[in-house]
TrEMBL record, chain A:
Belongs to the succinate/malate CoA ligase beta subunit family. Substrate binds at N256, G313, I314, T315. Pathway: Carbohydrate metabolism; tricarboxylic acid cycle; succinate from succinyl-CoA (ligase route): step 1/1. The lineage of its organism: Bacteria, Bacillati, Actinomycetota, Thermoleophilia, Solirubrobacterales. It comes from Patulibacter brassicae. ATP binds at K45, G52, R53, G54, E91, S94, E99. It catalyses: GTP + succinate + CoA = succinyl-CoA + GDP + phosphate; succinate + ATP + CoA = succinyl-CoA + ADP + phosphate. This is Succinate--CoA ligase [ADP-forming] subunit beta. It is an enzyme of class 6 (ligase). Binds 1 Mg(2+) ion per subunit. Keywords: ATP-binding, Ligase, Magnesium, Metal-binding, Nucleotide-binding, Tricarboxylic acid cycle. Its EC number is 6.2.1.5. Heterotetramer of two alpha and two beta subunits. Its cofactor is Mg(2+). The gene is sucC.
UniProtKB/TrEMBL annotation, chain B:
InterPro entries: Cit_synth/succinyl-CoA_lig_AS (IPR017440), Citrt_syn/SCS-alpha_CS (IPR033847), CoA-bd (IPR003781), CoA_lig_alpha (IPR005810), NAD(P)-bd_dom_sf (IPR036291), SUCC_ACL_C (IPR005811), Succinyl-CoA_synth-like (IPR016102). Transmembrane segments: none annotated. CoA binds at T17, G18, R19, E20, K43, I96, T97, E98. Keywords: Ligase, Nucleotide-binding, Tricarboxylic acid cycle. SMART domains: CoA_binding (SM00881). The lineage of its organism: Bacteria, Bacillati, Actinomycetota, Thermoleophilia, Solirubrobacterales. Succinyl-CoA synthetase functions in the citric acid cycle (TCA), coupling the hydrolysis of succinyl-CoA to the synthesis of either ATP or GTP and thus represents the only step of substrate-level phosphorylation in the TCA. The alpha subunit of the enzyme binds the substrates coenzyme A and phosphate, while succinate binding and nucleotide specificity is provided by the beta subunit. Residues 4-100 form the CoA-binding domain. Belongs to the succinate/malate CoA ligase alpha subunit family. It catalyses: GTP + succinate + CoA = succinyl-CoA + GDP + phosphate; succinate + ATP + CoA = succinyl-CoA + ADP + phosphate. This is Succinate--CoA ligase [ADP-forming] subunit alpha. The gene is sucD. It is an enzyme of class 6 (ligase). The keyword Heme does not apply. It holds the Pfam family Ligase_CoA. It comes from Patulibacter brassicae.
Length: 381, 296
């Protein structure tokens, strides 16, 4: 789960990493009140989960109440690449001497946390990595030990942080690791990590991704993220314990198992179709769950045809067939379905479907054949 | 031969008394796998259809000589159970559980590597392993597979069945099928399993089925070029996956330009590994390379 900047900063603050005082608000009046309370100049920042906020006009400096009001009313409701700004973060504007960069992520290849630090902050770190890789320090942390202060000092020193802020940078890195490990983050990034004229080290931005699998030990994480901008079908699916990802096309997809569903999307695309969603009904899906999944797929109005691609292991094909029949009784879908059933109880499943003789349901023998047929049906619709 | 599991496997199961755990354990036993025990601290002394239940891994290993562990316990406790199996000296620990926090996997991997180098972990979030005709550890529906000369290693369960089924329709069987799982920190990688298939007499061709996210497929490409004499056929799922969206598996996510299916397929092809664009085509390439299926 990706956090909004202010949520990340609040986590940072809780773990002793310096951030500016600020307040998240959702109305112009609250924005003005917050700005007056914090003291000018303030920065008004759009809280959306997408880069390029500054260029889109989502980050503005306000020197007084009139400017705060003007910027807040312009930014609240602003559409930044499809993300509607519902919240702005008002913080006291910082004086900046230097901009550094720091992040910790899970290096899947090394199977260790990777700490990165650079004195080239405030720019795309990918650019630094490509053009001046010597300026990006990479340090693997032993997760059984943690990040020691000595290690952090060495990273700051190797990265050529200014002499008088080595200690301050090291403290920030240690705190950043504490955020990463204690909050079950997969990414914790500060860009820029600033040095102020009075030589304080502070996080001016925050990019944090939390591991949803660890939610059970972080009840406080439940309110985080950008639920206001989440797709309503994805939210409903999550509540039902089904993995659904909305896509841009018109062919609804249901399969069992993440890999098989991904593969199904690819095969549909190879036949010239465009998938409307990724939906993994999971292992052991019973009829009720299948029916719910059909409801999710049809909730997307773009869907012109639906493909069921099931290879039953734990999942029983007869259950899937019964779920489809139940869904048809209740929902009476107007779009055609192509159904491919293989694996556990496939013979029974196919028989059940044949006897039910549902209108507009076509049985397919292979995955390729099913994809071809559903693409043709979607185009004909 | 086969790899990792066979007639000598002595399986014990943590979470044997749960609904899924007992169902699949009995399935594995019915297949012929030697299931010697199970673990549930609250039900020690009881049995599951004749399989004795012990309080912990140490007792289980001492009483039964179990050499293979299967972990079916819920996500909050799974990594700890796997670690205790390693501490008890179990050589192969197969974690089926889905939804384990990535940091738990990270610590488990590093701790086992440091303190218990003799233990190999498969998974988490994997379907387990099958050596057709010999042993089944996990949830792979064994009836679709027969013994043969193709080794399969995959990040996805059902996709493995799909590819295995395509191979079976062409008459091929398998030496072993290994699901390494779809999580960010798998205990075993493609490289680890391909290394075993390379040494295995029964295996004449290796199929590796990858997907978006991470760089395990790219690392396998390098390894294959340097160390593998047997033909390898690849498949990668997720060409149509958008950036930044997790496609079901916790590890299946494209971040920026990293981890795309295209980059993975190209990395493999650059090292001479042919990559099928569909499961069907993957089986066809295997057929082209091996000619006709030969009995193992």
């Amino acid at each position: 789960m990706d956090l909004l900047e202010y949520q990340g900063k609040q986590l940072f603050g809780r773990h002793g990493l310096a951030v500016s005082d600020g307040k998240p608000v959702t109305t112009v009046e609250d924005a003005v009140a917050a700005a007056n309370e914090i003291g000018y100049p303030v920065v008004v920042k759009a809280q959306v989960l997408i880069g390029g906020r500054g260029k889109a006009g989502g980050v503005k400096l306000a020197a007084n109440e009139d400017e705060a009001r003007e910027h807040a009313s312009n930014i609240l409701g602003l559409d930044i690449k499809g993300h509607i700004t519902r919240t702005v973060w008002i913080e006291h504007a910082s004086d900046i001497d230097t901009e550094y960069y720091a992040s910790i992520l899970l290096d899947r290849s090394a199977k260790k946390p990777l700490l990165m630090f650079s004195i080239e902050g405030g720019v795309e770190i990918e650019t630094v990595a490509e053009e001046t890789p010597e300026k990006l320090i990479k340090h693997h942390i032993d997760p059984l030990v943690g990040l020691t202060r000595e290690e952090a000092i060495k990273v700051a020193t190797d990265g050529k942080a200014a002499d008088d802020v080595i200690e301050g940078v090291a403290d920030a890195l240690v705190a950043l690791y504490e955020v990463w490990i204690e909050e079950d983050a997969s990414l914790a990034e500060i860009n820029p990590l600033i040095v102020t004229p009075d030589r304080k080290v502070k996080a001016l931005d925050a990019k944090v991704t939390l591991d949803g699998n660890a939610a059970f030990r972080h009840p406080d994480h439940a309110e985080l993220g950008d639920s206001a901008n989440a797709d309503p079908i994805e939210v409903k699916a999550a509540e039902q314990g089904v993995t659904y990802v909305k896509l841009d096309g018109d062919i609804g997809i249901l399969g069992n198992g993440a890999g098989l569903v991904m593969s199904t999307l690819d095969v549909v695309a190879q036949h010239g179709g465009t998938p409307a969603n990724f939906l993994d009904a999971g292992g052991g899906s019973d009829a009720a769950k299948v029916k719910q999944a059909v409801e999710l797929i049809l909730a997307n109005e773009n869907v012109k045809a639906v493909l069921f691609n099931i290879f039953g292991g734990i999942t029983r094909c007869d259950e899937v067939a019964n779920g489809l029949i139940a869904a048809f009784e209740d929902l009476k879908p107007s779009v055609p379905f192509v159904v491919r059933l293989d694996g556990t109880n496939d013979v029974q499943g196919r028989e059940i479907l044949e006897q039910a003789a549902l209108p507009n349901v076509y049985a397919a023998k292979t995955m390729d054949g099913a994809a071809e047929q559903v693409v043709a049906l979607a185009k004909g619709a | 031969m086969s790899i990792l599991i066979d007639e000598n496997t002595k399986l014990a199961v943590a979470g044997i008394t749960g609904r899924e755990g007992s169902f699949h354990t009995l399935n594995n036993r019915n297949y012929g796998t030697n299931v010697v025990g199970g673990i549930n601290p609250k039900k020690a002394g009881s049995d599951v259809e004749g399989i004795p239940v012990f309080a912990d891994w140490k007792t289980t290993v001492a009483e039964t000589g179990a050499n293979t562990a299967m972990i079916f316990v819920p996500p909050p406790f799974a990594a700890q159970s796997a670690l205790e199996a390693a501490q008890a000296g179990v050589e192969l620990v197969v974690i089926i559980t889905e939804g384990i926090p990535a940091h738990d996997e990270l610590k488990l991997y590093n701790q086992v590597k440091r303190d218990h180098p003799g233990t190999r972990i498969i998974g988490p979030n994997c379907p387990g392993l099958l050596s057709p005709g010999k042993a089944n550890v996990g949830i792979i529906p064994a009836s679709f597979f027969k013994p043969g000369n193709v080794g399969v290693v995959s990040r996805s369960g059902t996709l493995t069945y799909q590819i295995g089924n395509e191979l079976a329709q062409k008459g091929f069987g398998n030496s072993s099928i290994v699901g390494i799982g779809g999580d960010p920190v798998p205990g075993s990688s493609f490289v680890d399993i391909i290394e075993l298939f390379e040494q295995d007499d029964q295996t004449e061709l290796i199929v590796m089925s990858g997907e978006i996210g991470g760089s395990a497929e790219e690392e396998a490409a390098e390894y294959i070029a340097a160390h593998v004499s047997k033909p390898v056929v690849g498949y990668i799922a997720g060409f149509t996956a958008p950036e930044g969206k997790q496609m079901g598996h916790a590890g299946a996510i494209v971040s920026g330009s990293a981890g795309t299916a295209k980059a993975k397929a190209e990395a493999l092809e650059a090292k001479g590994v042919r990559v099928g664009r569909t499961p069907t085509q993957t089986a066809e390439i295997a057929m082209e390379i091996l000619g006709s299926p030969t009995a193992a």
